[in-house]
Amino acid sequence: MSRTGPVGIGVIGAGVISDQYLSNIVTFPDLKALFIADIDLDRAATQAAKYGVPGSGTVDELLANPDIEIVVNLTIPAVHVEVAARAVEAGKHVWTEKPFSLDRESGLGLLAKAKAAGLRVASAPDTILGGGLQSARRLIESGTIGAPLTGLTLFQSPGPESWHPSPEFLFAIGGGPLFDIGPYYLTTLVQIFGPVAKVTATSSTATTTRVIGSGPKAGTVFPVEVPTHYGVLIQFESGQSAQSVFSFESKLVRGGFVEIAGTDGTAVLPDPNNFDGATVVWRGQDDSESFESEGAMLGRGTGVAELAQAIRAGRPERASGELAYHVLDVMVSIAESAERDESVVIASTVQLPPALPPEWDPRVATL
Q1: Is residue 305 a contact partner of residue 224, using CB atoms and an 8 Å limit?
Q2: Average pLDDT of the residues in 287-295
Q3: pLDDT greater than 80 at residue 190
Q4: DSSP string of 139-200?
Q5: At what angle do helices 302-313 and 18-25 cross, to 10 degrees?
Q6: What's the confidence (pLDDT) of residue 1?
Q7: 260-263: long-range contacts at Cβ-Cβ below 8 A with a sequence spacing of 24 or more?
Q8: CB–CB of 128/191 below 8 Å?
Q9: Closest Cα partner for 248 from 200, 178, 187, 168?
Q10: Fewer Cβ atoms within 10 A, N terminus or C terminus of the chain?
Q11: Alpha-carbon span 226 to 223, nearest angstrom
Q12: Structural domains of the chain, ranges and CATH numbers in brackets
């Protein structure tokens, strides 16, 4: 029998990012937060008390709760697939943080497992569902810059070890600027241009170790296991192209830059790591116009609400596992291209859902 009413939510992982999710999840009327699990039971209990979630404890306890329909997987990248697979085996839908997986095989395996069970596995980034990027997509699709031709994205910083209290995982396998930051920019480009056909990339590693700069572990030296800079040329199935830089090697910080050039103008999009922001359209060197965003700009957890509504309605979710897998395939191919010094053809593809209507708002009850 199909369920009705708000969708029960269980969160696995009570770390730093859980605050961003929980502050929204507990306010969305189509969601009902029921349980928080973490290997640190005290941390789970603290977050449950902070957000008024009735239960906390172990992962096994969460998965045994029959009222939980969606598991929100906020664990470290190395165990994303393992935790998501356990949730599917327990009969739960999954929303997972990015990256979707660390390799093609485990990502495809997770999708196959969910499909066989009749379950959904959706994935961050849900910034693509925010009013900022959705408005930009609708603006481009309306022909405001003519036919989109090329894209340019830039993310450059010294790296997160100066501010993050425990940044080691961001420089381990599954981290680095490509896997940590890449999903925001690459998913945005796919929303505009469609699936990627081929990538050509170079990479570098500035140092083999880094030092934690703040928090209780300040001064701790840790290893760098992945490249800390990628330069990428992307060709889409449509024949259009983009260039991207993902770097933890720049003392000059440039973040949030996505530019789409078309036949009649160039659009500078909002930061793809945020949910809001205006789109500025340039029609000449001294001729620009700013377009304010329309739609919900509420933060992480937006995709969980959209997934819940899609489950109840029996329609595809917009931040789907298939989309996340395609972006994962692109990132793995970028890494392979840089390592092998050759272009890599992308095997996967994806069908994009329509843009959200501007009136969609997860704060409005629909279930």
Answers
A1: no
A2: 96
A3: yes
A4: HHHTTTTSSEEEEEEEEE-S-GGGT-SS-GGGGSTT-HHHHHHHHHHHHHHHHHH-SEEEEE
A5: 50
A6: 52
A7: 260/140, 260/145, 260/148, 260/150, 260/151, 260/192, 261/145, 261/148, 261/149, 261/150, 261/151, 261/152, 262/140, 262/145, 262/146, 262/147, 262/148, 262/149, 263/145, 263/146, 263/147, 263/149
A8: yes
A9: 178
A10: N
A11: 9
A12: 7-127+299-320 (3.40.50.720), 131-291 (3.30.360.10)
Percentage, residues of the chain above pLDDT 90: 95
- The answer to whether the pTM exceeds 0.85 is yes
CA-based angle 233:234:237, to the nearest 5?
155
Mean pLDDT of the chain: 96
Six token digits for residue 16: 């730093």
Q: Please choose, from the candidates 307, 305, 337, the residue with its C-alpha nearest in 3D space to the C-alpha of residue 319.
A: 307
Helix (H) or strand (E) holding 229: strand 229-236
pLDDT at 173: 87
Burial 291-322 (b: 16+ CB within 10 A, else e): eebbbbbbbbbbbbbbbbbbbbeeeebbbbbb
**Contact present, 7 and 362 (Cβ < 8 Å):** no
3-state secondary structure of 261: strand
Query: Residue 212 in 3-state DSSP?
Result: coil
Peptide bond into 125 cis (omega under 30): yes
255 closest CA partner among 273, 278, 277, 232: 273
Choose among 69, 70, 39, 73: nearest CA to 56. Answer: 39
Do 281 and 265 meet the contact criterion of CB atoms below 8 Å apart? yes
CA triple 254-257-263, angle to 5 deg: 140
